[in-house]
């Protein structure tokens, strides 16, 4: 069929273009005609017809018709360029001719680079529906800061009552709803905690705990790093409460488990800045004794890096939800 | 695009330059051996052996026969481009920062740093009389402070010798008498390099004060400013598009304390008139020291502190890209002046963006 189409396009005698190749005969007595290449027609289409033996049925002949669009570009250049093209190599360049692999002076980058839009990152974020799911992280951080200030000056929200901020929230929240298992429950959602819970569970499953991050890394950097693997619902970088310095670990939640798994596989041991990243699945929240958890949080989170970070970490991840 | 990595140099790249036809690319670095490459396939054509110091600058003549290299070993050497033979050595008193052929292809100007008791000097040489320079101008101290020149050029038709200084000033000297003709205060900090367009009507400065400025190279009127957030080491004007390319990044001395991500070692693409950054190309892991764009506009080279020269061939999408034209209030006006440009630039831009993002995603997945 393609052949016929070719004929329509170009009526010139294609036979002149037939390559001087003899038909080959297989053991089964099947004659395989030589590959035929048509002339490039006025629209720049060339038809290559090749034949081979059917892999399953040796008696059958398989015909492959490939249409190729041939484009040629005429470039004008000065005659001097043509002369210079004949120049022979000199100096160290002579060695290049026999060089192999890494020894070669010119290598083609394995990495494909693009002309990137410098404003693209912000644009993408705006369009990203997933950001809406987890809420804006910066907003979250701002909220935390505000709470901190509130605690400090004892203004608190209306529910705060007599007890100061964090402890009150930790214990109060857990006490109000023991099923939450020590999770931080925002005051507004305290009565509804049971309904919100399943959603959180799925989020936890897709969360990667990233450790050994250099302290210059920002949440935006992490976002950039993990973005290629899939939709991210949340990035949380643990920061010191007072200095706001990164504490060297972070949580990245993906919308899809597969994406998370892929990221895990690809970035495990990835050299980022001067450090080697370590990735592990965030530990699911083990229900804690509600009475102690509030206190533990109070004492541990913040400066005390010497303590078991993992426990603190699970708290940190709770907080972000 | 997949750039070619030209890894012939072992030290930071100082200068990359295309010849007039754009088929050869000359590179020099702080190692002592300038190289020449074929720009069409990145193949190394040859190396030039003989200098004993850092090569700060080079210039190739109009016909790509003779190459001049300026070195910190206080010499300028004249080479044959075809076989790498050193034809002549011009001895100076201090490290030579810049060298530039005059348009007559016979004279050239050099600028040397002050050295011991010798002040910085502008010299004009004739290749027919290699023994003595035909003109020598001392760079005097300004307010008791030594100022160093960063590079030297000839303006259109050898009218003036143009020198950029490390205090942000640019000067024009007369090539006949050596007298100071004009002084232009362009930047607050060091002017790293100035590049002209082909017919030398525009000059683009790059400065350590985080900006790059476009000047009219005839009356030296300031036209546009391109602002970035890092020192600009080099900037070039595209011959085929209304674009300029800026290269720079963190100062070399603070690179080891910052990550590649925040170092901003990208090549930035600005629109020449709108002064708007519309693209970046990443890849280097050190500040870009030198940029050059092929006169045919199809490829560009960047050389960085990391010792690599990257030769980029533009994608078809870039070459076909049409610059956005702001929607004019008056339709007639727009048709008259911008006939050759895209009628609906906004649509074109919107269509191009998601495609790029998609490709980016895929490439990471493969890696």
TrEMBL record, chain A:
<keyword id="KW-0648">Protein biosynthesis</keyword>
<dbReference type="InterPro" id="IPR034240">
    <property type="entry name" value="eIF3G_RRM"/>
</dbReference>
<keyword id="KW-0963">Cytoplasm</keyword>
<dbReference type="Pfam" id="PF12353">
    <property type="entry name" value="eIF3g"/>
</dbReference>
<protein>
    <recommendedName>
        <fullName>Eukaryotic translation initiation factor 3 subunit G</fullName>
    </recommendedName>
</protein>
<dbReference type="InterPro" id="IPR017334">
    <property type="entry name" value="eIF3_g"/>
</dbReference>
<dbReference type="GO" id="GO:0016282">
    <property type="term" value="C:eukaryotic 43S preinitiation complex"/>
</dbReference>
<dbReference type="GO" id="GO:0005852">
    <property type="term" value="C:eukaryotic translation initiation factor 3 complex"/>
</dbReference>
<feature type="compositionally biased region" description="Polar residues">
    <location>
        <begin position="312"/>
        <end position="321"/>
    </location>
</feature>
<dbReference type="InterPro" id="IPR012677">
    <property type="entry name" value="Nucleotide-bd_a/b_plait_sf"/>
</dbReference>
<comment type="subunit">
    <text>Component of the eukaryotic translation initiation factor 3 (eIF-3) complex.</text>
</comment>
<dbReference type="GO" id="GO:0033290">
    <property type="term" value="C:eukaryotic 48S preinitiation complex"/>
</dbReference>
<comment type="function">
    <text>RNA-binding component of the eukaryotic translation initiation factor 3 (eIF-3) complex, which is involved in protein synthesis of a specialized repertoire of mRNAs and, together with other initiation factors, stimulates binding of mRNA and methionyl-tRNAi to the 40S ribosome. The eIF-3 complex specifically targets and initiates translation of a subset of mRNAs involved in cell proliferation. This subunit can bind 18S rRNA.</text>
</comment>
<dbReference type="GO" id="GO:0003723">
    <property type="term" value="F:RNA binding"/>
</dbReference>
<dbReference type="InterPro" id="IPR024675">
    <property type="entry name" value="eIF3g_N"/>
</dbReference>
<feature type="region of interest" description="Disordered">
    <location>
        <begin position="286"/>
        <end position="321"/>
    </location>
</feature>
<dbReference type="InterPro" id="IPR035979">
    <property type="entry name" value="RBD_domain_sf"/>
</dbReference>
<dbReference type="InterPro" id="IPR000504">
    <property type="entry name" value="RRM_dom"/>
</dbReference>
<dbReference type="GO" id="GO:0001732">
    <property type="term" value="P:formation of cytoplasmic translation initiation complex"/>
</dbReference>
<keyword id="KW-0694">RNA-binding</keyword>
<keyword id="KW-0396">Initiation factor</keyword>
<dbReference type="GO" id="GO:0003743">
    <property type="term" value="F:translation initiation factor activity"/>
</dbReference>
UniProtKB/TrEMBL annotation, chain B:
<dbReference type="GO" id="GO:0003743">
    <property type="term" value="F:translation initiation factor activity"/>
</dbReference>
<keyword id="KW-0648">Protein biosynthesis</keyword>
<comment type="function">
    <text>Component of the eukaryotic translation initiation factor 3 (eIF-3) complex, which is involved in protein synthesis of a specialized repertoire of mRNAs and, together with other initiation factors, stimulates binding of mRNA and methionyl-tRNAi to the 40S ribosome. The eIF-3 complex specifically targets and initiates translation of a subset of mRNAs involved in cell proliferation.</text>
</comment>
<comment type="similarity">
    <text>Belongs to the WD repeat STRAP family.</text>
</comment>
<keyword id="KW-0677">Repeat</keyword>
<keyword id="KW-0853">WD repeat</keyword>
<feature type="compositionally biased region" description="Acidic residues">
    <location>
        <begin position="326"/>
        <end position="337"/>
    </location>
</feature>
<dbReference type="GO" id="GO:0016282">
    <property type="term" value="C:eukaryotic 43S preinitiation complex"/>
</dbReference>
<feature type="repeat" description="WD">
    <location>
        <begin position="48"/>
        <end position="89"/>
    </location>
</feature>
<keyword id="KW-0963">Cytoplasm</keyword>
<dbReference type="InterPro" id="IPR027525">
    <property type="entry name" value="eIF3i"/>
</dbReference>
<dbReference type="GO" id="GO:0001732">
    <property type="term" value="P:formation of cytoplasmic translation initiation complex"/>
</dbReference>
<dbReference type="GO" id="GO:0003723">
    <property type="term" value="F:RNA binding"/>
</dbReference>
<dbReference type="InterPro" id="IPR001680">
    <property type="entry name" value="WD40_rpt"/>
</dbReference>
<feature type="repeat" description="WD">
    <location>
        <begin position="281"/>
        <end position="311"/>
    </location>
</feature>
<protein>
    <recommendedName>
        <fullName>Eukaryotic translation initiation factor 3 subunit I</fullName>
    </recommendedName>
</protein>
<dbReference type="InterPro" id="IPR015943">
    <property type="entry name" value="WD40/YVTN_repeat-like_dom_sf"/>
</dbReference>
<dbReference type="GO" id="GO:0033290">
    <property type="term" value="C:eukaryotic 48S preinitiation complex"/>
</dbReference>
<feature type="region of interest" description="Disordered">
    <location>
        <begin position="322"/>
        <end position="367"/>
    </location>
</feature>
<comment type="subunit">
    <text>Component of the eukaryotic translation initiation factor 3 (eIF-3) complex.</text>
</comment>
<feature type="compositionally biased region" description="Low complexity">
    <location>
        <begin position="343"/>
        <end position="354"/>
    </location>
</feature>
<feature type="compositionally biased region" description="Acidic residues">
    <location>
        <begin position="358"/>
        <end position="367"/>
    </location>
</feature>
């Amino acid at each position: 069929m393609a052949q016929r189409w070719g004929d329509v396009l170009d009526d010139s005698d294609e036979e002149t273009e037939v390559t001087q190749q003899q038909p080959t005969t297989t053991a089964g007595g099947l004659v395989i005609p030589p590959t035929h290449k048509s002339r490039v027609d006025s629209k720049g289409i060339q038809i290559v017809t090749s034949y081979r033996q059917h892999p399953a049925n040796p008696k059958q002949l398989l015909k492959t018709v490939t249409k190729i669009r041939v484009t040629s570009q005429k470039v004008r250049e000065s005659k001097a360029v043509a002369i210079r093209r004949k120049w022979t190599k000199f100096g160290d360049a002579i060695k290049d001719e026999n060089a192999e692999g890494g020894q070669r002076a010119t290598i083609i980058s394995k990495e494909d680079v693009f002309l990137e839009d410098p404003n693209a990152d912000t644009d993408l974020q705006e369009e990203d529906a997933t950001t809406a799911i987890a809420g804006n992280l910066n907003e979250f951080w701002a909220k935390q800061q505000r709470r901190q200030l509130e605690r400090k000056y004892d203004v608190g929200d209306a529910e705060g009552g007599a007890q100061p901020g964090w402890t009150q929230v930790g214990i109060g929240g857990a006490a109000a709803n023991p099923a939450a298992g020590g999770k931080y429950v925002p005051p507004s959602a305290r009565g509804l905690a049971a309904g919100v819970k399943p959603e959180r569970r799925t989020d936890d499953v897709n969360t990667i705990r990233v450790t050994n991050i250099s302290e210059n890394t920002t949440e935006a950097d992490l976002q950039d790093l993990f973005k290629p693997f899939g939709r991210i619902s949340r990035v949380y970088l643990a920061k010191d409460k007072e200095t706001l310095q990164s504490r060297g670990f972070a949580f990245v939640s993906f919308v899809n488990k597969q994406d998370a798994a892929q990221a895990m596989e690809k970035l495990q041991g990835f050299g980022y800045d001067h450090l080697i990243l370590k990735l592990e699945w965030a530990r699911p929240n083990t229900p804690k004794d509600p009475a102690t958890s509030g206190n533990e949080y109070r004492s541990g989170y913040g400066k005390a890096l010497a303590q078991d970070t993992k426990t603190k970490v699970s708290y940190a991840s709770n907080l972000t939800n | 695009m997949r750039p070619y990595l030209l890894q012939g140099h072992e030290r930071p790249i100082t200068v990359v330059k295309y010849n007039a036809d754009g088929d050869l690319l000359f590179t020099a670095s702080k190692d002592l051996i300038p190289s020449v490459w074929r720009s069409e396939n990145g193949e190394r054509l040859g190396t030039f052996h003989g200098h004993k110091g850092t090569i700060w600058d080079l210039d190739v003549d109009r016909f790509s026969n003779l190459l001049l290299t300026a070195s910190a070993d206080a010499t300028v050497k004249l080479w044959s481009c075809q076989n790498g033979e050193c034809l002549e050595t011009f001895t100076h008193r201090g490290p030579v920062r810049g060298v530039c052929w005059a348009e007559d292809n016979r004279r050239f100007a050099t600028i040397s740093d002050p050295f011991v008791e010798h002040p910085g000097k502008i010299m004009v040489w004739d290749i027919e009389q290699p023994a003595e320079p035909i003109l020598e101008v001392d760079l005097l101290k300004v307010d008791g402070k030594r100022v160093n020149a960063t590079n030297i050029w000839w303006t259109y038709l050898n009218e003036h010798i143009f020198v950029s200084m490390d205090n942000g000033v640019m000067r024009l000297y007369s090539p006949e008498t050596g007298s100071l003709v004009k002084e232009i205060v362009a930047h607050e900090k060091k002017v790293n390099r100035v590049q002209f367009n082909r017919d030398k009507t525009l000059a683009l400065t790059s400065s350590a004060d985080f900006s790059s400025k476009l000047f009219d190279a005839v009356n030296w009127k300031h036209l546009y400013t391109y602002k970035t957030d890092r020192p600009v080491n080099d900037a070039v004007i595209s011959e085929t598009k209304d674009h300029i390319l800026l290269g720079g990044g963190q100062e070399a001395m603070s690179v080891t304390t910052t990550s590649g991500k925040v170092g901003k070692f990208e090549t930035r693409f600005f629109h020449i008139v709108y002064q708007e950054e519309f693209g970046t190309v990443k890849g280097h892991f050190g500040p870009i020291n030198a940029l050059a764009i092929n006169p045919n506009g199809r490829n560009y080279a960047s050389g960085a502190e990391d010792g690599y020269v990257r030769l980029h061939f533009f994608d078809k999408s870039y070459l076909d890209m049409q610059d956005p034209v702001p929607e004019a209030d008056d339709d007639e006006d727009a048709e008259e002046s911008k006939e050759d440009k895209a009628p609906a630039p906004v649509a074109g831009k919107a269509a191009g963006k998601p495609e790029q993002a998609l490709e980016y995603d895929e490439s990471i997945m493969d890696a």
